[in-house]
From TrEMBL:
It is found in: Cytoplasm. Keywords: ATP-binding, Cytoplasm, Kinase, Nucleotide-binding, Transferase. Pfam families: Cytidylate_kin. Coiled coil: none annotated. This is Cytidylate kinase. GO terms for biological process: pyrimidine nucleotide metabolic process. It comes from Sphingomonas abaci. Its main location: cytoplasm.
């Protein structure tokens, strides 16, 4: 069983994908981490994220980077949305994600284009959303819990900028797959979000 979970920043897709993976005993891949690792490599090598050739060179990152706590920073998230707009960056990360989705038994993947590009054949697709203000509040508390001092207004502005870049790009834009189930987590607790997600997956698989 392949489960695709897509949505904008801090909508809750990662939390939901992890919970679904636990519930169904499936492996989980947070595909955003791959783009964040490319971004961090661009940063470390002092490359230019707006140049496709520079960003492609950074796709050859060391896998140990995927565990780096620095990947979660707001700055790396912003830079990730710059490198991820390059078609050759997306192409370079495609096979790895495709293979993960198609391992025996299946998998849960979360990102922006799982249901549309990486695994359009997924058995269940969720599109998770929440208002920009609620997402900014969540991301702000998360960043503060990890010691960052960024303001709520800056987090909100960055979330809006990232939404615009991710939805406006030509290559695999953030868009709800027509055959996905919509889950608005704005006014749901984590437990409620997970229960709804499981119910939506069950309904898809039964159909
Ligand atoms: O966790 P959050 O939603 O804040 O971000 P993320 O999932 O770690 O993704 C960081 C950035 O990577 C996004 O803003 C997208 O530009 C890009 N991304 C993408 O283009 N496609 C994916 N499947 C996942 C992430
Ligand atoms: O993966 P994505 O960036 O979409 O979001 P996440 O990392 O799953 O969730 C962002 C933050 O919102 C986390 O701190 C979650 O615990 C929190 N969250 C929440 O407060 N209420 C929900 N219904 C879902 C997530």
């Amino acid at each position: 069983m392949i489960i695709a979970v897509d949505g904008p920043a801090a909508s809750g897709k990662g939390t939901i994908a992890r919970a679904l993976a636990r519930h169904y005993g499936l492996p989980h891949l947070d595909t955003g981490l791959l783009y964040r690792a490319v971004a961090m490599t661009v940063q470390r090598l002092e490359l230019d994220a707006t140049k496709e050739a520079d960003a492609v060179a950074a796709c050859d990152f060391d896998d140990s980077l995927l565990a780096d706590p620095g990947l979660r920073s707001d700055a790396v998230g912003q830079l990730a949305s710059v490198v991820s707009a390059h078609p050759l960056v997306r192409a370079s990360l495609f096979q790895r994600q495709k293979r993960f989705a198609h391992q025996p038994g299946g998998a849960v993947l979360d990102g922006r284009d799982i249901g549309t590009v990486i695994a359009p054949e997924a058995d269940a697709k969720l599109f998770v959303k929440a208002t920009p203000q609620i997402r900014a509040r969540r991301r702000h508390s998360e960043l503060h819990a990890h010691g960052a001092t960024i303001s709520y207004d800056k987090v909100l502005a960055d979330i809006r900028a990232r939404d615009a870049r991710d939805s406006g790009r030509a290559a695999a834009p953030l868009v709800q797959a027509p055959d996905s189930a919509l889950l608005d987590t704005s006014f749901l607790t984590i437990d409620e979000s997970v229960r709804r997600a499981i119910a939506l997956v069950e309904a898809r698989v039964a159909a």
